[in-house]
Amino acid sequence: MTMLPDNGIVHLSSPYSVPETVKRLEALLLARGLPLLARIDHSGDAAKAGLQMRPTELLIFGNAKAGTALMAAAPTLAIDLPLKALAWEDAEGRVWLSYNSSEYLQHRHGIPEELLKNIAGLGSLAAEAVR
C-alpha cells in the first residue's frame, strides 16, 4: 500500500497496466459468480471528448442477494452499493487498484457486524488481482 490519503479507500499497487489490472479483477469476480454491472473507461471517454486523462477505469459489481440484506439493514449504504473498484495511473506512471474498505462502509453506514461478511471479500479479490 501507499501513503495516499485513504479516507476509507484502500490503494493497492499493481504491477500491471490499468486495462490488465481491470481484466484480472473482472476475471476473479466472474469466477466467483459476482455479476459485473458496468465497466467505465473514464480516460477512454475523456479521449472521445478530445480531453487527456491518465488511464482510469472503474468496475461496478455485486449481486442483489448479498446487497439487499445490507441495504435493508442500513438504507444509506445504497449510495455506495454496488461495490466499485478503480484502476488508475498516477503522475509517475504507477498503477493502483483502489476500493472502499468494508470497515469504512460499516462505520459510514452502521452496517451490522453479522452482515459485514457480505462485502468483506473485496479486499482479498483486489489483492489477488494485483499479484
Give your account of this protein's structure.
The protein has helices spanning 18-31, 42-48, 64-73, 102-109, 122-129; strands at residues 9-14, 36-41, 56-61, 83-89, 95-100. With 131 residues, it is an alpha+beta fold. It has a single domain, classed as TT1751-like domain (TATA-Binding Protein, 2-Layer Sandwich), CATH 3.30.310.70. Strands 1-5-4-3-2 form a 5-stranded antiparallel beta sheet. The mean pLDDT is 95.
What's the number of domains? 1
CATH architecture: 2-Layer Sandwich
- Write down the CATH class: Alpha Beta
Poorly predicted runs are none
| Sheet with the most strands: spatial strand order | 1-5-4-3-2
- Helicity, in percent? 25-40%
Q: Find the structural class using helix and strand composition.
A: alpha+beta
Strand content: 15-25%
Order of helices and strands: EHEHEHEEHH
First-to-last CA distance: 13 Å
Radius of gyration: 15 Å
Find the count of extended strands (DSSP E, 2+ residues): 5
Apparent shape:
globular
Name its key features:
TATA-Binding Protein, 131 residues, alpha+beta
Provide the fold topology.
Layout: E1 9-14, H1 18-31, E2 36-41, H2 42-48, E3 56-61, H3 64-73, E4 83-89, E5 95-100, H4 102-109, H5 122-129
Helix pairs in contact: 1-5
